[in-house]
Please model this.
Amino acid sequence: MRLNIKYKLFLAILSAHFLMYLAMYSAGYYNFNQGFLDYVSRIEERQVPALVDGLEKYYKENGSWDPLRSDSSRWIGLLRQSIESSSEPIEYASRQLRPKSGFSQNDWYYTSEYSPARPYLHLLDADQSIIFGNPEAFSTAANLNPIMVAGQAVGYLAVTSRQQLSEQADVLFAEQQKNTFLALAIVLVFLSALIAFPAATFLTRPVREVVAGTRALTSGDYTSRIKVRGNDELGQLAVDFNTLALTLEQNRSARQQWIADISHELRTPLAILQGELEAVQDGIRPLNTGTLDSLHNEVTHLNTLVNDLHELSMSDLGALVYEKEQINLSEVIEQSIDMHQPLAAKFNISMNLTIESSHPDKAIFMLGDEDRLMQLFDNLLQNTCRYTDAGGELQIVVKENADYVRIEWFDTAPGVKEADLQHLFDRLYRVEASRNRAKGGSGLGLTICQNIVHAHEGTITASPSPLGGLKLTIIFPRRPNKLPLIRTHD
Model:
């Protein structure tokens, strides 16, 4: 049978309490037995000085132990006389009892095994031979109390410490305490169960909610959320779960939008191609140079879109390889500008490059992939030439310091509305007024540029240009992660 975590936690708490109560019961019962035994022994030893005084008087009066050897009743009488003559109170069962004359022979004071009248006493002579007492109960570890007469030991009163309880009343009392301890332990275990089960239910409630939420996610319900309870690890787990659910929901929406956008982008040139081909087939449009040029333009646009989609998908999958090494960024930008001079001249756009470098030859070194950075600047230059009005201007300013390289990209009108700036790097996004499909772009160029910048651990942001167009700010760290030469995938 499989137990869920609530019952496992309940059993764990209950087991811990049970083991604790068992240890307390065992330690308490053992300490009680030892303590009670010591208590009984102390009661027995309480009257030893009085007994020794009585025995000393007896020996002085009789001159020897011979009368005791021949008559054991005299030993009992001697003990009684010594006890009754004592003025010390006897503590027993939380009461103080003082011996008094007139004790009967059946009084507890003489019949109880832990009374000084019947302790484990042995009378020994000067040679430590037993005069009175049970030889089988005598122990060599007994305490010997010398009986002194005229400065000489004439005998010894041996007191043997009790090793176990033997009187029935003592045993019954100990058993009663044992049963009390056991009943108390059972009650405590029952109370622990009453507390542990609600506690286990309460503690596992967040876990059950996470399990239910996870099942909802696996079934495709990305709107599932769980309540955050507290700031502990389970609360953080709930926060992370909600973040995961939100991310999955956003990714699903983005994927659906992405598919819809791709379908739309592919459908437009295909529809144009199909319409023109059908017009040629039906004889509506002649198959001349103009028609072929139109078909070629649509095929070129379709090919550009497919290539950009392929490159972007490769970037997302991490299949684009970046070979990073120390490169001269100034040379990369200058080469890209030189390559695009004919395109800029076609659109009558002037390009100006300013490099602020600490080197005399204006070199700026950084860690990067030269080919990918060339691709970055090519895309940006094509984007500028495609969307900047004829007769416009492009200004590129490159600055360096010890930690990073900053590239500022200014172009002239048309500009981009504030609401559109934050979406410029979204896939297939276009500003409808000026940067549209008629300009020949796929809507993926800036997204690819952003991926390249991020692969170099840099940032790229868009803002209004002081020249009236768009300003792009790119910041590259000089040595990402302080590594000299790395190979990474975007």
User: Anything to note?
Assistant: Residues 222-300 form a domain with the Helix Hairpins fold (CATH 1.10.287). The longest strand covers residues 468-477. The first helix runs from residue 5 to 46. The chain has a mean pLDDT of 77.
